[in-house]
């Protein structure tokens, strides 16, 4: 698990600094396992961060009893339970103790809500102290060797402590199984702490179980389960609409329609897998690696294929050119690299104990994905610009109008993305301690919803129909769109006289001036039409 410090009334700098170092995502599971974890020093204390989650208050009123027994029903309960916690000190520390002495070391478990952070610690002569010193104990507010907790008589739900003592020369101390019921909604932090310097080198093993009233899913993540469920239904509705259109106009299907179908199918699988992964997490308190890997992989594949779809549509694939020509290998290479980078980032975010990763480690994985996204955006808009230019030259008005609508919506999407990135940076900067955790789910949800809306627009613009000439590929516009394979100054365009799309294209060109037709090598076609 990660490590965070505790603040004093005069200075929360240590607390905020350490929280920022690990504020990547909340713990990946509500069952927090510790395996020989060590304590680190801060001020005059030693601590280990045992976890942090947003917890809702219990739905059932249990009065003033802050602990619930094991046999009480879990439904409606919100709690933190300590199970099989073992503290193991060094042999050198043990040899310094007297075997006849009953208590030879103290480790405390501190549970506090983030808004109560200033109640931990104290100060004396302008020095910050987390553990009680002889000077601070003179007024009777704390006991020497214990963590300072400034209790508020008017708020009994303030920071709570559970003490575990080493006895005699025992190297191990077992923490009693205890459950702290949560009666106030908030962001909770758990710290294991000791003040005795002779306990340096002590290790902790065991686990704690965190539960919300409706399940084990952390409060910051619980709204996402409902969101993924709704998005699964949304993709199902879109898939049903697309499938019916696909069947209705199956004779007019072009290659691009199969690519759109693949993205819809991947989206349905992705949302369903995330929903079931979160539902399993909520019911068991852990995230099975198998389900998570499948969900992460489908997510990475869907993101990659979606970006490739936008790119090839912008290039006019299936509409203005039958193949990508010489740039196929470059498009595939970019897709493979993006999939690898996205898969690595998703695995780090959703597998294992994420709090172990520092900000630099996460930044190392985020930067490649961000740079590749920038490459996709630049390539997409560059291709769109060239496509629109060629369509204007060719006077292909139906295709031109289609691509103008697509370009406008894509531009709006990019602007919304930039604005949302700014909001996300502002949100994280103004909430370093996750006090707004109940609203944090909208950050990832926005990107999922935006991707869905963009897919809906593509489905509407390129929906199968009886009159596919507005977007179907025709040989008349097939030249000069592949800059690497076809010269822009080629000879006259071939016309398949029996092709319906080609005839409609000639009808559009009749409205243009004879000079324009001559410039583009179509004067002979126009004269032939007139003679007919």
From TrEMBL:
Main subcellular location of this protein, as a coarse class: membrane
* Any GO CC annotation of this UniProt entry: membrane
Q: How does it sit in the membrane?
A: Multi-pass membrane protein
Q: GOST seven transmembrane domain spans which residues?
A: 223-468
Signal sequence extent? none
Q: Which residues cross the membrane?
A: 12-32, 188-204, 224-244, 256-276, 291-312, 324-341, 361-381, 402-421, 441-463
* Subcellular localization(s) per the UniProt record: Membrane
**Pfam families the record matches:** GOST_TM (PF06814)
Q: Which UniProt keywords apply?
A: Membrane, Signal, Transmembrane, Transmembrane helix
Which named protein is this?
GOST seven transmembrane domain-containing protein
